[in-house]
Amino acid sequence: MQYLITHFSEFQLATIGSFLIHESVFFLSGFPSIFLERSGLFSKYKIQKKSNTAEAHKKCVMRLIMYHVCVNLPVMLISYPAFRYMGLRSSLPLPNWTVIVSQILFYFILEDFVFYWGHRILHTKWLYKHVHSIHHEYATPFGLTSEYAHPAEILFLGFATIVGPALTGPHLFTLWLWMALRVLETVEVHSGYHFPWSPSNFFPLYGGSEFHDYHHRILFTKSGNYSSTFVYMDWLFGTDKGYRKLKVEEIEGKDH
């Protein structure tokens, strides 16, 4: 961090630096699911048997590059003054690890809450037809489809990701760590694979790939499972009933 703050301005680090970190984490974590689909490796862990075509993969990647350069990057550049005003800093020393952990936990909880309601709104008839349906073009998701969406949706649901940091004014290192973890989480839930080592097998409140894959393959008016990370919002508001019923049926089927 010392090298970075010595050789680059805070504006460069918070904007261009954040963009490069996002792109690196996103594409490096997202491309493996394309490789797995094309190669057939770990097919027994694939949630849906259907696979996307090479053309569908290419369309997704090209559209993502356009959206990231034309939407994400400008938003990062424009929003810097607001983050600076709210307390963003890059100077040393770094915050205590307890501060970093508590802030990121707060960000995950707040993001999940805001995302849940925003996502439910996007599943109303008009908004789904004109905005959110683009994200659902891929009924069989793979990692990179996590950010494949209408520009309006990118801005609308992106608010859920930035509201926590905007409220707390974190250190830039904390912001980068939060961004990386959030990207890894959304890529994982869109991966289309449920492995023995998937986080949802160890953290009961974490939704994971099975939870969100159900959302993609069911008719938009009945899909439920609107949360981004955790399961309790859908449980509290009864929007996971179809998914829970399916899981019970799967367990009963195995018993017989």
Automatic annotation (TrEMBL):
Q: Which InterPro entries match?
A: Fatty_acid_hydroxylase, Sterol_Desaturase_Related
* Subcellular locations according to the entry: Endoplasmic reticulum membrane
Query: What membrane topology is given?
Result: Multi-pass membrane protein
Source taxonomy = Eukaryota, Viridiplantae, Streptophyta, Embryophyta, Tracheophyta
Q: Which family does it belong to?
A: Belongs to the sterol desaturase family.
- Recorded catalytic activity of this chain's protein: a long-chain fatty aldehyde + 2 NADPH + O2 + H(+) = a long-chain alkane + formate + 2 NADP(+) + H2O
One GO CC term, this protein: endoplasmic reticulum membrane
- Kindly indicate where the leader peptide sits in this chain: none
Pfam families cross-referenced by the UniProt entry: FA_hydroxylase (PF04116)
Question: Where are the bilayer-spanning segments?
Answer: 12-36, 64-83, 95-117, 154-179
* Keywords (A to Z) from UniProt: Endoplasmic reticulum, Lyase, Membrane, Transmembrane, Transmembrane helix
Record keywords: Lyase included?
yes
| Biological processes per GO annotation | lipid biosynthetic process
The protein's name is aldehyde oxygenase (deformylating)
